Structure prediction request, 302 residues.
Amino acid sequence: MMQTETRSDVPNTEAEHAHTSTPAQSGLYSWYVVLLCMVAYIFSFIDRQILALMIEPIKADLHISDTQFSLLHGLAFSLFYAFMGLPLAYLADRFSRPKLIAIGVVFWSVATVACGLSKNFIHLFLSRVGVGVGEAALSPAAYSMFSDMFSKEKLCRAVAVYSIGSFVGGGIAFLVGGYIIGLLKDMTLISVPVFGMLKPWQLAFVIVGLPGVLIGLLVLLTVKDPKRKGQKLDANGQAVKVSFKDTLCSCANTAKPSLAIIWVSLFMPWPCIASSAGHLRFTFANLASRLRKQVICWARSC
Prediction:
């Protein structure tokens, strides 16, 4: 009897040990995923901001105007970064999110390298579009994974840690970019294996773009798609699909801003139009000076 009781106690102890160790291991893995996504977010800001440090050499070599450069820095990236978030979020709802993130990271990193290999305005414009499209895949898939990996009590903390990447990346972009440009400023042409002869500003794009390929491979090989939670099931136990129209109707019923507020915000000197994963900035200073008074008077009359 004593022998039987001893044997029965051992499995219970092992089961208790497994029960207590699993949450800790799961918690460490979840935070590893958050940190890895944050690192990817940091590199996304480095890759998008590095262009601003090399205005003069790019203008001189590619013979582009100030207007064309503003299109490269603003429209080419921001427009596609904002609007591509919708179809990529649609894919994140239906396919593997780690694979989507990995493809996005590798895609925008290759596009950043392509920026350094551009020979004219069109090539650079298309490369910047590629950077915007690739970066649009990161946040929708990351937020979706976090909601399935963390409880409600820890979800905000995970999102906050991930969001740190935007501020860290913005700062590192200027620090690292300025340091690289400072090292290469006295060189005219640099011989780079595979890429051939590159100018300093071209090599800067290659240096900041290539590490992203390794991050994408790391996401693909080490991150597993978590089981989706919180889905509404039908009578057959299948997840109910929500149409895009239903989503828009839900947003419209949740928040109904007045037309006056929309008009005033549009004609402020520096209005910001927020997107799901980033922001677009448009300047209407000249137009605002003439229309602001009319809009305010109209709002008061309403």
Q: What stands out?
A: The mean pLDDT is 76.
